[in-house]
Amino acid sequence: MNSQIENYKTFLASPITIKGKKVKNRLFLAPMAGLGHAAFRELISEFGGFGLLFTGMCSAKAVPQENRNISTVFRWRDEELPYLVCQIFGSEPDGMALAAERIEREGFFGVDLNFGCCASAICKKGSGAALLKEPELAKKIVEAVRQTVSIPLFVKFRIGWEENSLDGAIHAAKMAAMFQAAGADALVFHPRSAPDRRLRPPKWEHIRLIKDSVSIPVFGNGNIFEPSDCKKMLQLGNCDGISIGRMAVSKPWIFSTISNGFLPHPDIYQHTSIRMITLLLKHHDERTAVKMFKKFVPYFAAGFKFGHSISKQLLKSDSTDEILKSVNSIFSEHAQPPETIDRPNLHLFL
Predict the structure, then answer these.
(1) What is the distance between the alpha carbons of residues 58 and 46, in angstroms, rounded to a whole number?
(2) Model-level pTM?
(3) What single string gives the DSSP state of each residue in 104-147?
(4) E-strand spans in 67-149?
(5) Residue 346 domain-assigned?
(6) DSSP helix/strand/coil, 305
């Protein structure tokens, strides 16, 4: 692993096999809520450099009868299916299995079980990270899905409901082994406790405990802000790959930078924001496009020294035309270009 750490970009750009299916590299878009929609994934696909993409959070109750042409979440481009994993949440084994069956039938690369979301609206229904408080139920969900589908099965989870202590990480490692025994093919691990959300830095060293407890691939997740962070996570966590979430929203070209040495041109932010709204209009109606763009704005603005003012200006827009005018005003050739920063403004990284 030492040589892999020293040559971490080469390592991350190398292929990996998950349940007999080859993935071209070890960089994944992290499963996220409200951000991993079809338009955003298409934008990332234009830059490339990733191995797998994950959808936003899809309700297992809705998936079996969901219309992909109407849904804002269970929607995809056919050409992305070979590298797309569908993320589902729920608390009933049979319901999760039924959703996974539809996902396999549609041709997705794999299915991801969300045991990591700590949003109160999800947890109060016994889904997401709340399942870490009920290990037996979580195990039954993994088993039910495994018995139903043959595509790769991922589990995204956190340390649990304990604070970021060693005891909590040891418990998470035991759960990881349980998930593997139940049929999981790969794990995406976010080394924070659920109550923490993002108040404190993730404990990357705890990823190593998860890796040591299983033989299936483990992908680390949490606070990867620039390529050098990948090297540190690999060094501390000994993981098989890295799952990038919020920073991919801020810089959709980050995968290509790590994998292919892509160097962003001076107009990349203006191009990206205009392309984002264009793709949102391709996939959704005007009202939905504006709503989704506003979710994108704080992460986009976090890449600037004075990001709050950029965020405020863009969030005032109530139509896609107004958004485009605001973008062009911010990046006007007649104005001083906004100063970018290497590491994001965490006050905007919600």
Answers:
(1) 24
(2) 0.95
(3) HHHT-SEEEEEE----HHHHTTT-GGGGGG-HHHHHHHHHHHHH
(4) 84-89, 110-115
(5) no
(6) coil
- The answer to whether residue 126 sits within a structural domain is yes
In a domain, 101, yes or no: yes
Q: How many CA atoms are closer than 13 Å to the CA of 128, on its beta-carbon side?
A: 23
Instruction: Indicate the residue type of 50.
Output: F
How many residues are present in the chain? 350
Residue type for 83, please? Y
Residues with catalytic function: 117
Same domain membership, residue 286 and residue 222: no
- Residues with Cβ within 8 Å of residue 3, at least 6 apart in sequence: none
Task: Give the end of a domain, one of 260, 292, 314.
Answer: 260
| The pLDDT value given to residue 163 | 66
Enclosing domain of residue 59: 2-260
Q: What is the pLDDT of residues 78-94, one digit of tens each?
A: 999 999 999 999 999 99
Cβ 254 vs Cβ 248: under 8 Å: yes
Look up the CATH number of the domain holding residue 86: 3.20.20.70
d(CA 152, CA 149): 8
Q: Does residue 308 share a domain with residue 196?
A: no
